[in-house]
Write a structure and sequence with these properties.
- The structure is a single chain.
- The chain is of the alpha+beta class.
- The chain contains 25 helices and 37 strands.
- Strands 11, 14, 17, 19, 22 and 24 form a 6-stranded antiparallel beta sheet that branches. A 6-stranded mixed beta sheet has the order 33-35-30-36-34-37. A 5-stranded mixed beta sheet has the order 25-26-29-27-28, covered by helices on one side.
- The longest helix has 21 residues.
- It is elongated.
- It binds adenosine monophosphate and glycine.
- The site of adenosine monophosphate (AMP) has 15 residues, from strand 6, strand 8, strand 15 and strand 16.
Amino acid sequence: MDQISSTITPIDRPEKRLKREHNSASSSDMADLRILLIGNGGREHALAWKLSQSPRVESIFAVPGNGGTATCPKTSNVTSVSAEDFPGLVQFAQSNGINLVVPGPEAPLVDGVEGFFKKAGIPCFGPSKEAARLEGSKTYSKDFMKKYNVPTAAYENFSDYEKAVAYIDAVDHDVVIKATGLAAGKGVILPTTKDEAKEALKQIMVDKAFGDAGSEVVIEELLLGDELSVLTFCDGYTIKSLPLAQDHKRIFDGDQGPNTGGMGCYAPTNITTKELTEQIDREILEPTIAGMRREKQPFRGVLFTGLMITSAGPKVLEYNVRFGDPETQTVLPLLSADTDLAEIMLACAEGYLDNCNLTIENKFSATVVLAAGGYPGSYAKGTPMKVDSPPANSTIFHAGTKLEGDQLKTSGGRVIAINSVGDSLRAAVDASYAALSNKVIDFEGMFYRKDIAHRAFRSVEKTSMTYAQAGVDIKAGNDFVDKIKKAVASTKRAGADAEIGGFGGEVDLSQCGYPDAPILVGAIDGVGTKLMIAQSLKKHDTVGIDLVAMNVNDLVVQGAEPLMFLDYYGCSKLDLSTAADFVEGVATGCRQAGCALVGGETAEMPGMYQADDYDAAGCAVGTVTKSSRLPRLDAMTEGDVLLGLGSAGVHSNGFSLVRRIVQSAGLSYTDPAPWDTSKSVGVSLLTPTRIYVKTLLPSLSQIKGLAHITGGGLIENVPRMLPDSLAAEITYGSWTIPAVFQWLKKTGNVAPVEMCRTFNSGIGMVIAVDAASAASVAKALADAGEQVFEIGKLVKREGGEGCVIKNLEAWN
Ligand code: AMP
Ligand code: GLY
């Protein structure tokens, strides 16, 4: 601040006043800010619109402004000085008592406008020239991300054409090619083949299609996922982000046609969850801001981070050092009325953002951009426009317009936009389109996209969630079993058929030289992605029970008594207390099942897993005599009764889908469970799998078949105990469906049949029993503490279906 000299008028030094006004509640006599706003787009109109609502703002001078800023309250357009003439802007600021400068576009920031005002002692909301390289140079930003471990696409820089071509030949991922200098958003090429990639390189590096901007290129890995943008206010230390938004860059509906500056936008996006927002802060924004400080270039202003939400988490596509367009027109209307944008901007420039209120309304916002015919190619300018007052909750933001006398005319390609805010995304989008249908805006040749927010609606309305979408393909699993059958069969030996597809494996010891010995039965299983919930909650003492349950329940369905258990625990770095908690859980499960934990293996494999992740598997071994093996296929007949034993919850299957649904609902595992507010989401989901061994063993002689309901749900598991001639006919409504499944179904919009193919839906074990013994078996099990339901019966198998759930469509 030692540049501040006595030639600066008091109004140029807001710091003293600022401190006082921080503590003052009254806003009546606070209008002390005279703002110089640089730019003429929709973004700048939106900034002027919100800034003008600040009680602190006395006046706004837009250089050069547009038809919207010309009529915005407190705002006037300035044509006496050019936006590129920095000394002229400083002079204008000094002679007009400007005490806050807001550059809208990147160009002045990249060219160092902040430094000019800094020298003059006038606060400027925006990064220094050095910090603006985050946007100004792709090479700089990619190197920066690498240095500070900010997740982004794999990349290499090339200034040599031949080396770039060799790289294209060498990599095995699809690529994106970017000219490193500013190329007005046009410097990005997404080739679909290696030949196309090489042709693009030639055009950029040899033919200089983008001029000097193409003397250096970045070749980047193609990232797939949802593309989002986040705007983050920053004073160098504190960050405050606006809701995640999604732009629509292509000109035509369905994301077709050439790229534009942005044809519409909505926020917040429907994939926004608290977890995702926190992950973006933790993995991307905080390291970026800390990295800039470490570079001795603290970032002040607004950082626009373009993100791809990939299956491996959010990754940065690009940084911009200014507000987005049309993101700004979309997210500023979500700020509460008492959120003072001028105060926030000053705070960013002066370093007290932590003291500022930034409140976001719990609403949705949608912006539709109207373009001039021909855009993004050549288009007419000077077309007269009619613009009426928009309905309540809608706002019109001008971009390429200018006021000539009283007549508003077009002056750009993206001409104007309408934004609406509503209680739902649907309401916001509908309000914008309704206003356009009512011709609030009209000019010759205008056009706009009719499908803004289509991605959000596609996933909400059309697709209900399925296990396969969550990344798990039961069919692929079954195909795999078919594939490995041969190799497995080749291990056949006396006493063991080595066939697969059952619940466990058997060796008949009496055929292995141990006369009168029983059949040895073994089962192996893991816990699956339920482990990720345990890891995220750092609660490791129950998943061991799940591990035992998954195995011993598979043994008991063969009529076997589990005798021993062995576990395997794999991690990158052994944390004693985590591993000990885990094994405690295994021991608890073994006690519940009456089997001995006879061995285990703990494998520490540096780099094998991420951070504190671990995986676990276990194996149970038991015995059964020949006469008590289950299922008794020959004894099963039409009319046999099916009993269902209640489950303790989701048990250990379907967690990929569970996690996805929880995420889509915006819940953290520590939030109260909507289906059971006495517990957190995570703790409720971690309820261990019920172990049915001790309750079932005494009744096994009266039972014809048992099915442990694991992955594949009722529909896939019940047929596993049946002969080909019989099918299970289960009646929906004959058992109580626990609240957690109702919630999963409703929240994930999961089809009933998908529920019964993925989850146990409340039944953890199905028993086939002679109709005559059904009542006594049910009573014995109920007396032993099980929840017993008569859920159906065995019928003749007509088609291929081994399990039919009657009346399932009633589940809604
Ligand atoms: P950029 O100018 O780097 O922001 O890129 C413009 C657009 O190209 C982005 O908004 C993306 O839609 C697309 N894009 C850029 N880089 C990638 C990448 N690595 N993978 C996939 N799409 C990309
Ligand atoms: N909407 C994209 C941008 O402002 O760069």
